Amino acid sequence: MENQRPAPFEGAKPFAQLLIFIGLFCIAVFLLMIGMMLAQMTGKVNLMVLQSTGSFDDPDVLKTLKILQIASAIILFIVPAIVFAFLAARKWAAYLNIDRIGKISILLLGGILMVVASPLINFLVEINSHLQLPEWLHGVEAWMKDSEAKDDALTVAFISHQTFTDLIVNLIMIALIAAVSEELFFRGVMQKLLVKMTKNTHIGIWITGIIFSAIHLQFYGFLPRMLMGVYLGYLLVWSGSLWVTIFAHFINNGAAVLFSYLEERKIITDSVDKVGTQAGGSEAVYVIVSTTLVVLLLVAIYKISRKNIVAPS
After folding, report:
1. How far apart are CA 138 and CA 180, in angstroms?
2. What is the pLDDT along the chain (313 residues), one digit of tens a residue?
3. How far apart are alpha carbons 111 and 250 in whole angstroms?
């Protein structure tokens, strides 16, 4: 039986467990690099050249990059999280909070919140885009802008000119796999370890949110992504189920993919996903309404799930 299976690091101190988890992640990075080197040796796609040029016009290149993105999510996030759970807990599924779905009402409200939060998120993205680093960090800022521009170009290449088949593939790759992998890694393991280390639920959630945003290496989207991570952290604590956070994460990522598909077919206007970016003008009402709805939904989720909440230390 699962609870009789040995878990060699179950009794280790939280800091030691965190080091083990980081070690597993480093091993995953190494294995991914080896895999990329082997793929490079085939000569079909020169990933280093691709990264430097940022050209994504070749369908074969895009296909390869999609495979690489899926492989990266599985190798870097899913595998280390599951392996660590096996090593640290006899009931690994319970450790990751994937042994139960949780309340359906919380799952649905958590997903709805991600939808109604869109104008608020767009507003925060707009604010974040105007932040500047000190002059002495000009080189770092230039690197950030260049790196983010290439990431944006890749995302646009993935979700532009989508057929229905492309839409399904992108929903699986950008929304589903990303949601499962990142939630397993950050909320399933990292947040749990940081809460134990700090002995404070709130601190653990916020530190995890900061790391979650920082690891994406997108400075100009740091603030909204950090707050999203914090929201997902509290959603896990309140619901007790990682499936709830996975669903909310899926809705957030999937909306961008779906909006792009609908925009290209003129079903919706291309301004839908930009509502709230001009919050200082006529669109201020959208941000205000969005913020109000987010607060009301947070209160509703908290009240519904209060019986499941573990009081912070």
Report:
1. 36
2. 455 677 888 888 999 999 999 999 999 999 998 887 877 776 555 555 555 545 566 677 777 788 888 999 999 999 999 999 999 999 999 999 999 988 999 999 999 999 999 899 988 888 887 777 777 767 776 777 777 777 777 777 787 777 888 899 999 999 999 999 999 999 999 999 999 999 999 999 999 999 999 888 777 788 889 999 999 999 999 999 999 999 999 999 999 899 888 888 887 776 666 776 665 566 788 888 999 999 999 999 999 988 655 444 3
3. 8
SS3 158: helix
What is the torsional sign of CA 22, 242, 117, 262? positive
239 in Cβ contact with 308 (< 8 Å): yes
Q: How far apart are the first and last CA of the chain?
A: 32
- What distance lies between CA 114 and its chain's CA centroid? 13
Taking the C-alpha atoms of residue 107 and residue 87, their distance in angstroms, rounded to an integer, is: 29
Longest dimension (CA), the chain: 62
Say if residue 26 is exposed, middle or buried (CB neighbours under 10 Å; 0-12, 13-18, 19+). Answer: exposed
Dig out the tokens for 184 from the structure: 């397993």
Round to whole Å and give the CA distance between 105 and 250.
17
Residue-range domain boundaries for the chain: 2-308
The one-letter amino acid code at 250 reads: F
Closest CA to 25 of 178, 225, 190, 172: 190
Q: Is 97 left (phi over 0), alpha (psi -120 to 50) or beta?
A: left
Per the structure block, which two tokens stand in for 32? 């991914």
